[in-house]
Design brief:
The chain has 264 residues and is α/β, with parallel strands linked by helices. The protein has 2 domains: 104 residues, Gyrase A, domain 2 (2-Layer Sandwich), CATH 3.30.1360; 136 residues, Alpha-Beta Plaits. 37% of the residues lie in helices and 9% in strands. The chain is built from 9 helices and 7 strands. The chain has a 5-stranded mixed beta sheet. A two-stranded parallel sheet has the order 6-7. Strand 2 and strand 3 form a beta hairpin. The protein is globular, with a radius of gyration of 21 Å. It binds iron/sulfur cluster. The site of iron/sulfur cluster has 12 residues, from helix 7.
């Protein structure tokens, strides 16, 4: 049951005029209550969409259209084709918390004079055990890892925390849902990235700029067409999209230093 007189809900609903886009969900004010649907369905006739109750939204948000679990609910792969009607602000809060857990509370926290943001260095400094090594990434390495993990192709939360040298996200680039501290996937990805940095027996490769460009092109194709069945949180898989994105980030850094001669 939604909490009575929740200030986050009250402030959020006051900001909602006729309609509002929260990540991939379009919320429209109705004569009574609100209507929620996927942004891809914003112009679709309502009677062609599947009417679902609030209680079914969590199950909808748990898996992609091909059945993979969605560890990050703000990932831009929410299923489309549904419509949910709610009768009150309290029900709207319930519905949004099924789709984007904690989004309203975090949105409200950011409206306060001192938002509770925990940056990468403070967050990793309090890690123990296997996650302690996440402190060992340099600022440049951490920035590459963060850019790769939190890229809009993987997560629509607006990252407000950062590491020295890396700007935070804008709402325009992501969504209204703020990210106040690194999530579990980010922490595991930072651990994996540091483990990769520590690997020995590195091949002594020297690549020409054109060869780097070919690898970048291949990575972009792979990122645009990820494997069906690829588990998002399986960061041990060499083909994990976040790992491909990190490799892309690293190589992209090289080609900004050395670029092939024009016209070749
Ligand atoms: S840490 Fe990055 S991937 Fe995780 S929820 Fe925040 S923005 Fe998204």
């Amino acid at each position: 049951m939604a909490e009575l007189n929740n200030p986050a809900r009250t402030a959020f609903c006051a900001s909602l005029k006729d309609e509002l886009l929260l990540a991939q969900v379009r919320v429209r004010r109705q004569p009574v209550g609100f209507e929620l649907r996927h942004v891809l369905d914003q112009d679709t006739a309502a009677d062609t969409l599947k009417l679902i109750p609030v209680a079914d939204l969590r199950a909808l948000a748990n898996h992609t259209v091909t059945g993979e679990f969605r560890p990050i609910k703000a990932a831009p792969n929410l299923r489309a084709g549904w419509l949910c009607r709610v009768a009150s602000e309290a029900e709207l809060e319930l519905a949004l918390n099924q789709l984007y857990p904690g989004a309203l509370a975090d949105w409200f926290a950011v409206q306060q004079p001192t938002p509770p943001v925990t940056h990468y260095r403070d967050f990793t400094a309090r890690q123990t055990g296997m996650y302690r090594i996440t402190t060992m990434l340099t600022d440049i390495q951490a920035a590459q890892v963060i850019r790769a993990c939190c890229d809009a192709r993987f997560c629509l939360k607006r990252r407000l925390w950062t590491v020295p040298g890396l700007p935070s996200d804008t709402a325009h680039a992501k969504s209204l849902i703020p990210c106040l501290e690194p999530c579990a996937v980010m922490l595991e990805f930072a651990r994996k990235a540091m483990r990769i940095e520590q690997e020995e027996h590195r091949p002594n490769l020297t690549l020409a700029p054109s060869e780097v460009a070919s690898i970048l092109s291949t990575l972009e194709t792979a990122l645009a067409h990820p494997h069906t069945g690829q588990r998002e949180a399986d960061l041990s898989a060499a083909s994990n999209p976040r790992r491909l994105q990190l490799l892309h980030e690293k190589l992209q850094g090289l080609v900004t230093v050395v670029t092939p001669p024009a016209g070749e």
